[in-house]
């Protein structure tokens, strides 16, 4: 059928009611958002953002309501979609923005694709990777993997991807989203090593929309975390308080979930796998810890400073 592209849509969408089918690849995926309220009767108050791209550039795509439980788990980073009967809207200005792996890619920030059950009812088709043709010009998923030795030189809030061997995972903890509210964030701390430094990655992992992975992080698993943010406590000794925290677009993968993921082609991922082949599993197991309370960043040495 006759296809359009994101660049053409951005220029012409206000003068059209119907749009030609669109072929895009998913580059980023946000956590699932629940926006239900007790006073509002809504069947499926869910929403999820994706960043999608074709040969002309990248824009946001929003999955609404009952389409979320139907499609969210099938729409993975790297998935190619054929979209028909979608809507185009002005973009929501306050959403989070993931950092693209390809800094040269053009971003269409004024529009977003809206996928709804009705008005109009969107038709979504997933194209298997083996049927994706090079002449479609769809971009590959690119990452920003760093090694532990590179971390100390990175600025606060820098966005990156990491891979490492888990040596410690703490218990799940809760933090209030806002003071005096009933909603909580669920998170856990983890350490992962990659052989490039004597220090581990210190990872603050909030529960994303992957409960099956979040609950199964354990020592000796290969852990991949994407779209992590560098956190530096600049008032203290910066090198001792640097850690990584998840963002709205973070994805977490452990052993058993890596097969077929786009990052398996990344050079730094391959280097890590080579390093692991040279390690003694028995030696690494002796250094691993699980559970317990992990106070981080550590409080000052004396009470008056605290």
* Count of distinct strands: 16
The whole-number mean of residue pLDDT values reads 92
CATH level-four homologous superfamily name of the largest domain: Nucleic acid-binding proteins
Shape: globular
If you consult CATH, what is the topology of the largest domain? OB fold (Dihydrolipoamide Acetyltransferase, E2P)
Q: Unreliable segments (pLDDT under 50, ≥5 consecutive)?
A: none
Beta fraction of the residues?
Answer: 25-35%
- Measured as a percent range, the helix fraction is 10-25%
Classification by helices and strands: mainly beta
Order of helices and strands: HEEEEHEEEEHEEEEHEEEHHE
Number of helices: 6
What are the key terms here?
2 domains; RADX; mainly beta; 12% helix; OB fold (Dihydrolipoamide Acetyltransferase, E2P); single-stranded DNA binding; RADX protein; five-stranded mixed β-barrel; 306 residues
Task: Characterise this structure.
It contains six helices and 16 strands. Helix content is 12%, strand content 32%. It has two domains: 6-136, Beta Barrel (OB fold (Dihydrolipoamide Acetyltransferase, E2P)); 148-300, OB fold (Dihydrolipoamide Acetyltransferase, E2P). The longest helix is centred in the last third of the chain and has 11 residues, at 267-277. It is mainly beta and 306 residues long. The protein has helices at 6-12, 67-71, 148-151, 211-214, 267-277, 281-286; strands at 22-29, 33-34, 46-54, 57-64, 80-84, 87-90, 107-115, 123-127, 159-169, 173-176, 184-193, 201-206, 222-231, 243-246, 252-253, 289-290. Strands 1, 2, 3, 4, 5, 6, 7 and 8 form an eight-stranded mixed β-sheet that branches. The chain has a five-stranded mixed barrel with strand order 9-11-12-14-13.
